[in-house]
Design a protein that fits this description.
single chain; 176 residues; two-stranded antiparallel ribbon; two-stranded antiparallel sheet
Length: 176
Amino acid sequence: MAAQLEHVKLAQTLPPKLLRFFARYPPVIRAATTSVETSINTSSADPNANHTESTHQTSLTPSDKPNPFKPHKHPETGRWHDPVYSFRRQADLVKLAKDNGVGELLPFTFKGSEERTKRREEHGLRVKGTGIGQRVKGKIWERTMKGRLQQRKQAMLDMPAMVQKWKQVRRFPADF
């Protein structure tokens, strides 16, 4: 009874968008795994006299609706239907659920936190030029900026010598 009150309080704090989603697509609650073992004895002449079957079943609450984040095939027509929620709306729902602490209740989506971290670990940043020994192509002004800054720095270091040289060879008298 106390657990139900706790769930009701949690539901009252959720934003309306999440409440509507969970009302339409209730979360699948995983029950305990049950295992059934049966032993069949046949004739003693049979080489497989003691045959043991083991069946593991995970009972889930029945869900008539497919995952709203994935495309699915219509059972009668065989045609594919688009997901109910676009990637942008999936990302919004995942962010809302994560902020409210119910992210694990959402169905599987590529926009989920665990899926994103898994993909980041597998593929890295996937930005060209960020690896070891790689260079980003960039615009021409970005590619030549380093050389231009070095030329400017060298010109500023050589400036006193250039001023002295120009004072010695100028055409006009010193007093204006």
